[in-house]
Amino acid sequence: MRRAALSVFLLASAILAQVDTGTIAGSVTDASGAVLPDVALTIRGEASGQDYRIATNSAGQFVSPPLQPGPYLVSASRQGFRRANARVELTLNQRAVLNITLEVGATEQEVTVTAEAPLLESESTTVGNLRTSQSVRDLPLNGRNFANLFGLAAGVVPAQTQVQGLGLTPARGSIANSVNGAGFRANRIMVDGLDNTESHNGQGIILYPPIEAVQEFSMQTSVPPAEFGRGGGNMSIRIKSGTREFRGALFEFFRNSSLDAKNFFDPPGKTPPFRNNQFGGVIGGPLVLPGGFNRNRDRTFFFFSYEGARTRQAQTFVSNVPLPEMKRGDFSASRNILFDPATARTVAQGVQRDPFPGNRIPEARLDAVGRNTLALYPDPILSGQASNYRSNPSQPRTANNWDLKLDHRIRENDQMFARYSRHVTDEFTPGALPAPAWGNTSAGLSRFPVQQFVISETHIFSPSLVNEARAGVGRLFIDSRHPNYGDNVADRLGIAGVNGGADPIRSGMPLINITGLTSIGDTGFRPAIITSENWQYSENLSWHLGKHSFKFGAEVVRRRYNLLQTSAAHGIFNFTGAYTQNLISPANTGLGAADLLLGTPINGNINSLSGTRGFRRTEYNLYVQDAWKLTPSLTMTWGLRYELFPSFPWVEVYDRQANFLPSLGDVFVVGSPEVPQRSATNNDLNNLGPRIGFAYKVGSRMVIRAAYGIFYSGESVPETNLPGVNPPFTGSVAFVNNQADFAGARRIAQGFPLPQTTLYPTAGAQLFSIETDFALPYTQQWNFGIQRQLPRDLLFSSNYVGTKGTGLLLSPNINQPRPGPGAVAARRPYPRFNNIREIESAGSSTYHSLQLTLERRMRAGLSVLTSYTWAHSIDNGSFIADRQNFLDLRSERGNADTDLRHRLVVSYTWELPFGRGRKWLGGIGRAGQVLIGGWQANGIFSLYGGLPFTVTTAINTLNGSGTQRADRLAHGSLPRSARSPQRYFDVTAFAVPAQFTFGNSGVGILNGPGTVQLDQSFFKAFALGGEGRYSVQFRGEMFNLLNTPQFNNPAAAIGNPTAGQITTAGSKPTFQRTSRQVQFALKLYF
Fold first, then answer.
1. C-alpha pair distances (Å), 99 with each of 13, 56, 801
2. Span(s) in the chain for CATH 2.60.40.1120
3. Structurally, what CATH architecture does the domain formed by 8-118 represent?
């Protein structure tokens, strides 16, 4: 059999691939360049042994059906020409373009070449990256969470503690990544083509696949094709499938605190205890049953994975607690002067108060409930009045996860797969302080059972027409209880209207927020009993016609969301020092703890829990897209996607929703003449998202590309269900005291009045509203760039990437009182009510970036990805942002929370070139091989600047108007050499604003500390047996190897004793930006 040269031009792009598969396409010509129709092609999967038979059309072109990622053998034959064979390594979400030239000769003669997809993407208009199974498996990922791969791409601001999520998610791993300036809830994560995003927080993942079960990971960050929705990043993960051979692995990952470094803020002594075991195994192969089923091992395959985890980790808390004498009313050690609110009188400058003699509150003036509450704090164990209490309580966690996947070839033109996964996690999150104070709003016991099922069938009607149908469901159940569950703490303290006798749901104590001290009590978000389900069905039809590759698709998603949770189930009291400050000159006066001892909060609220709400919505998506090969060098892509959300944001199964209408100034139930829509808002029918782009190949080593698209985000966030907690179905009791009226202030002992009926009054209630003509937020994305293939298999890309967000979700308080003296209610636009948060599409954002990448795919044992991003992101408020002036959103525009100007990430995998089968010392003996052969190094190096923060004031002079920014007297940023955790920015550059005036400093004007981190691992493999079927791999993984401190943003409330200080570093619960941690592993491959 003769072998000769074959002209194979193999390119990778992501034009028409399925969301979890890929395609092989191209053309066949003769030696003169003339196209050859009716060429028979056979594509054989090396792993499965399955054959796919297609033929070229009249233009000599071909497109394969959707194929699983992996190696394939392509054979092309036609009478009068030699048969040509090529090997293609197909990857996730790729269209591998294989151009074959047939030579004249007998068909029995063959021309063979082995080729892999070069990096140059000559037909793609999408910006993104790909991680193969090896990089997913080998890169050091703390917590073994695949979502950490988000951070390897350019344009991504990774999840960290400065980007605050909601309390239920840290136990399941943080994924609050911002992609190209879009909000983290705009991302979409798909597992085996199934939507994997839960409907509660909108940022959580339903299923976290074990690393050993992930075949490939693909991420598209800018202008993906029309089959993809959402305005952020699109991540696709494919679970492994079985092959013709039985293959598997057993593993154990172990770490404890003996080799770890302490957190920067841990107390002196030993490293706090930490023990983590992750263990399990995977196995896959042909499913052979008695009776000869699948005897050839080429029709049915299985893959099974199990992963267990047992974790005991000590958390690091640094808290502010009062001095012992302060609990008795003696504040003589405080720098803040206390003023007696009972001495208030009106003078020309305003309301004047006299100081307490000696800065001591007489014992007879102490409120009994306030004294009982302040006594819940432990005494300091460190010096000073700030950061004077440290603790390292243990956080236990248990997980058991398993997955089963079956692949089956029904007949030549029909194949299917099905997968079922069940993951269960139990965790207790401790508090910073002893019970019942706790001192951590995330404290409590949580259980997260997860189930996911997906089934898919692909039918080949003809070589140019292929349909794929997919259906599935993902279910996340959350059962999270507050730490004082079953204990009526509020009754013991003397706070009325909180506990409900034997009802454990209403047990516990209110959340007590005290300016200058760590908050204590139960978070209002517990208990939380939640079911989040996504039912999904989709059809995708691929049609290859001449120079066009069309794709049509439809998708229906049904979301079911059952919720027993509210935001203030046990009540919230806020003590800010408003009653012990000098109202005329408030700087350095007043203390929140002193207000508590007087029993006078500045405000408070409680929300009722009145049964489970059942929220539903259905989403319909249609799309068409085309890749038009105008010339051999120019490809045009276009597409159109239509998204319909007829029940956005939610419909409640029994219509237990009501909406506040600003135009009428009152609350109306859905279904009434005033609010006829069940979802409380009119349907938005204009959600057309066009896509257009081009890719132009210049020579053989460079591509110029550009693209533009519009993307809609029907985001699922907790606040979109708030019409379901309006009266009369549920209720909120809230009050705001007038800081100048001490005698008339509501006391903490009065608590909250209990409702007497099942229908709640609206007068005085805290309400929620949604715009009746709410429009879905949308994002415009665009990119322009070049890609150049360099020597040594390197690929360089330079892209300008931009994003503009319009109609983004905001939730302002439309009943914000204007700053001023006197009663608060009289200064509200709607005096009958308390705060009214309105969900509205009034947000906007802009993002511009330069993104540079240098990549080497795995070749000769080395793969490298280097990503650098320069970016600037501006917005007028994130969705849950607490802004100063909701009456003028233009004044709230500034640097976005995720405005990260510079970020460099380098990741690599390197099989050291020593020993048998390697470049050097390939003939080494067995003993030498044991010592120097089989080594591998892997790493991720991250270097990036700090995120913005806003300087506020702990002494609020607005009299009931909410958050207040400080006045800016100077720049406030210290030289780098002068910064320290004790003084990160110049506090003296800011001041408390004058009475009843907004602060003049802007949003996000200062930046926090940056990050320098190296995660490194070393592997050593030992072959077992002579045939190499078995091997053992020992791993050592070091996260933050150099132990650089990963400081979080400083406290930024002027007037707070900790203002300007950094008191936390990293995030232990989510394994993000930790101090050095060391992990060892042992894996057996067979």
1. 14, 12, 31
2. 8-118
3. Sandwich (2.60)
